[in-house]
Amino acid sequence: MGKNIENFRDQLGKLAEAVEIFENTFINDGDLEIKVSLDEGTFINLMENLNNGSKDKKCVISIGSVNFTFLKK
Question: Considering its fold, how many domains does the chain have in total?
Answer without folding.
Answer: 1
